[in-house]
Write a structure and sequence with these properties.
The chain is of the alpha/beta class and 815 residues long. The protein has 27 helices and 21 strands. It has a 7-stranded parallel β-sheet with strand order 11-12-10-13-14-9-15, sandwiched between helices. The protein has a 6-stranded parallel β-sheet with strand order 16-21-20-17-19-18, with helices on both faces. A 5-stranded mixed β-barrel has the order 2-3-4-6-5. The protein is globular and about 95 Å long. Bound molecules: adenosine-5'-diphosphate (ADP) and magnesium ion (MG). Adenosine-5'-diphosphate (ADP) binds at residues 387, 389-390, 393, 416, 418-424, 544, 568, 672, 674, 676, 703.
Length: 815
């Protein structure tokens, strides 16, 4: 059976996920309620009489139907209750472990240890040994600087002291008083001990009660002044005195009266991990801030801090952890207090300065290839094309030609919605390189996409006599070796591949152009690894994810941007329909009607976190079911990420040729697959996808002349919010609008699909929330660099850049 701790962890995960980034994820969490109900059942078995458990249950009963605001309230409250449960659990565990030997105490804040530096390892701080350090590592804290940057994710107002006679039952209150008695009492139940603290403030008496923590008794003695915070309940056993169970507490030593940290003020709440309580973190932060906070240096130039009225950095750190100036709890909770914004600004400034340096380096210091403006191959290609390029394609091609014929290395981003025709643009750019005697390569994010590019590009290149090779991780060893030889000798004029292209053994004879498709899948580092394979080759980045301006500035701040903002003529907007489980038959009939017209369909299953296996099962079973029970006369194919490359190719080829009528797959077809005859995209569990991802999937159809459809198969139970979201999605085909909505809902990290994103790891700032700061920081950074290109007058900034961004951005030497 699971212990209390692991059940609490299980509950906390979705809850903290929902609350992250100012509740940006709230909507994507469906069916929290039944999940919590099961967990509560388990909790009951272990700790039947904890009232907190009942409260959790109450908070989530009917949860899925609550308004977003109510949901937030309930979640905030649930976090506090969980914390109480957990704190109690942690201290029980700690006291058990420490049994008779030395008890580990939180670091005292009274004696500063002034020798701390930002890079001091956390285990050398007072009161933290190697064991605690190990635990702190789990939450990303290894050094003093990490600790200072570990911001509270939430704050609670415990500064509003109430007279005991005026308390409201059922609300969260803070009281101060003198200890009257501190006793451990036993209940009728065996071995259950309750520590009870009786306090008075002259207006009345109140009981603080700790369940099964008799060791607490040692900390309190009559006559002490204490502050307690928690939910007030009436106590049926003690003549109706108000009571707080597991209160947050602070013991006031006379000389520490101004050192309140756990209550009696606006209190920071930190995310914790096993063995580290919030209380412990608070004490640790206080101690670290006191001993080395003032040593944190201001990196920003005085002109800038002055101009924007920014507070000094040491003060900002102090105010973030222990706010004294900001009274507006919601500003603090959203990370938008003056202190938060001070640190966000610095972080964004450093980032923009890095990008500015990089751009300048590329622009002025490096000399790339100036291709001759030849166009024999391009003209030949155009003759063979079945269509006329759109005006937008022509414009972007012109921009690329201008860059490529210039001696400065090109660094251009092409944004174009799915289906806007980016491939042919990349092809024309590649032909210019080839005609000049250079090689071009195109790097795609998935094998399937690379293979498809290969097929399309070979079809265009062969009539022109241009040699194309493909290089992916799962190709046969012999093929790979042959490809490597051709790449090295220059016989391969255009090379298509996955990230296998950036492996060390890949050596180009004369790489002149690197095209990176669907860039949001790659990090910035990979971009520079690839470009290092040529002598300053031109770089073309292509993305189908329209990126709002602020984000583009951050992720692609050093690139020039072209936009293909026009779809090929004759495309019909895709019609999107939301079906429900009860109408699944109808959906099948609809598919059948399209198949009768000789069209084809995709059926896609989502990838659920951590359980790829069960998705696979769902997709596999679905394919079998469709084949056997629904479409016995049609050929149905199955495609998933675990298949060998050869198998995938065979399945794709059969679908491409029209032999396979329905392709059931996991999300491997998300990007770039191009089968013009497919007119139906069925998406199972659409509520589990982000909007941008849905848009990519939908973009797999509507690529030919036929009217195409996207069928969203909603589950039986459906949260109102998910329905709204999907309805909004059904109404528009505009990728830009969808991306903005998605970004708003999920935040940049999720939007880009996590770690690989190449998004800088920002600790204080959030580029969506702090978009205004980003713009200012950018202006200032680029301005400063123009005025002092070597940063000669700003040694501290050079240091900052070296420390933070040099490796990550592949910066050229700073200064
Ligand atoms: P994406 O921008 O999503 O990568 P593709 O380059 O795969 O789009 O193009 C989608 C489809 O549109 C392909 O079948 C391609 O041949 C076709 N296409 C590209 N440009 C045009 C055009 N100007 N007119 C008509 N069809 C085009
Ligand atoms: Mg594409």
């Amino acid at each position: 059976m699971d212990d209390l701790k692991s059940i609490l962890d299980r509950i906390r995960k979705p809850i903290s996920f929902a609350s992250r980034d100012d509740f940006a994820h709230l909507r994507s969490l469906a069916s929290l309620e039944p999940f919590i109900r099961v967990q509560v059942g388990e909790l009951r078995r272990i700790a039947p009489d904890r009232r907190e458990i009942a409260e959790i249950e109450n908070l989530f009963s009917g949860f899925d139907g609550l308004s977003p605001d109510r949901k937030k309230e309930h979640i905030m409250r649930a976090v506090a209750v969980l914390e109480t449960l957990e704190h109690q659990q942690a201290s029980t565990a700690a006291s058990n472990a420490a049994a008779s030997s030395r008890r580990s105490t939180p670091p005292a804040s009274s004696e500063p240890a002034p020798s701390l530096r930002l890079d001091t390892l956390i285990q050398y701080c007072k009161g933290i040994g190697p064991k605690r350090a190990e635990m702190l590592k789990k939450i990303g804290i290894s050094t003093v600087e990490d600790a200072l940057s570990y911001f509270p994710w939430r704050y609670e107002d415990r500064g509003n002291l109430k007279k005991i006679s005026r308390l409201t039952y059922g609300s969260y209150e803070t009281v101060s008083g003198e200890v009257v008695s501190a006793e451990v009492v036993s209940t009728k139940r065996q071995r259950v001990k309750i520590f009870e603290l009786l306090i008075t403030d002259g207006s009345g008496m109140l009981i603080g009660s700790w369940f099964n923590q008799p060791f607490m008794q040692k900390m309190f003695k009559p006559g002490q002044d204490v502050i307690l915070s928690g939910i007030i309940k009436s106590n049926p056993y003690k003549s109706g005195l108000p009571q707080i169970d597991n209160p947050d507490y602070e013991i006031m030593d006379e000389n520490e009266a101004d050192n309140l940290i756990h209550t009696g003020r606006t209190v920071p709440i930190y995310r914790t991990t096993a063995g580290i309580s919030v209380r412990y973190l608070r004490s640790m932060m206080k101690s670290i801030l006191d001993s080395c906070g003032p040593a944190v240096r201001d990196m920003l130039p005085k002109e800038i801090t002055g101009k924007y009225g920014l507070m000094p950095v040491p003060e900002a750190f102090y105010e973030i952890h222990f706010p004294s100036q900001e009274k507006d709890l919601s500003l603090l909770n959203r990370g938008m207090s003056a202190a938060h914004r001070r640190l966000s600004f610095e972080e964004l400034f450093a980032l923009e300065l890095g990008l500015a340096l990089r751009k300048r380096g590329i622009a002025t210091e490096k000399k790339g290839i100036g291709f001759k403006p030849l166009n024999g191959l391009e003209t030949a290609l155009r003759k063979n094309l079945a269509f006329k390029l759109t005006n937008a394609q022509e414009r972007v091609i012109k921009e690329i030609r201008r860059d490529m014929t210039d001696e400065r290395p090109m660094n251009r981003l092409v944004q174009g919605d799915v289906g806007s025709g980016k491939t042919v643009v990349a092809m024309i750019a590649s032909l210019l390189a080839v005609e000049n005697g250079y090689q071009a390569c195109i790097m795609a994010p998935t094998e399937i996409l690379a293979e498809q590019h290969y097929k399309n590009i070979v079809a265009m290149a062969r009539p022109l006599g241009v040699a194309v090779r493909s290089l992916t991780g799962s190709r046969k060893k012999k093929d790979k070796e042959a490809a490597l030889v051709d790449i090295g000798s220059g016989a391969a004029q255009i090379v298509i591949g996955t990230h296998a292209l950036i492996e060390a053994q890949v050596k180009f004879k004369r790489l002149g152009l690197a095209v990176i498709d669907e860039q949001h899948r790659f990090g910035v580092m990979q971009r520079s690894t690839l470009t290092a394979k040529g002598y300053e080759p031109d770089v073309l980045v292509m993305t189908a994810t329209p990126i709002p301006r602020t984000l583009a500035l951050t992720v692609y701040g050093d690139l020039d941007v072209s936009v293909i903002d026009e779809m090929p003529a004759g495309r019909k907007p895709i019609i999107t329909r939301l079906f429900f489980e009860s109408r699944r038959r109808e959906a099948y009939q609809f598919i059948e009607s399209e198949l009768k017209k000789d069209r084809q369909a995709y059926v896609v299953y989502p990838l659920v976190e951590e359980t790829e296996k069960s998705d696979l099962k769902a997709a596999t079973e679905m394919a079998a079911h469709l084949q056997k029970d629904i479409f016995p006369d049609r050929k149905i194919g199955l495609l998933h990420g675990r298949m060998k490359a050869g198998e995938k190719e065979a399945v794709m080829a059969s679908f491409q040729s029209g032999e396979t009528k329905i392709l059931v797959s996991t999300t491997v077809i998300e990007v770039g697959v191009d089968v013009a005859n497919a007119t139906v995209m069925v998406i199972e569990h659409p509520e589990r996808f982000g909007l941008a991802q849905l848009h990519q999937l939908r973009g797999r159809v509507g690529r030919g002349v036929h009217q195409s459809f996207c069928v969203l198969m909603g589950p039986r139970m459906f949260a109102e919010e998910a329905r709204e979201r999907l309805n909004a999605f059904s109404r528009t085909n505009d990728g830009f609008k969808i991306a903005e909505e998605d970004l708003r809902l999920r935040g940049p990290g999720e939007f880009f699909g996590t770690r690989q994103s190449g998004l800088p790891d920002l600790r204080a700032a959030n580029i969506i929330r702090d978009a205004d700061l980003l713009e200012k920081a950018r202006e200032e950074a680029f301005g400063l660099l123009q005025q002092d290109p070597q940063l000669a007058g700003y040694p501290q900034l050079r240091e900052l850049l070296r420390a933070k961004w040099q490796g990550r951005l592949g910066l050229i030497s700073v200064g």
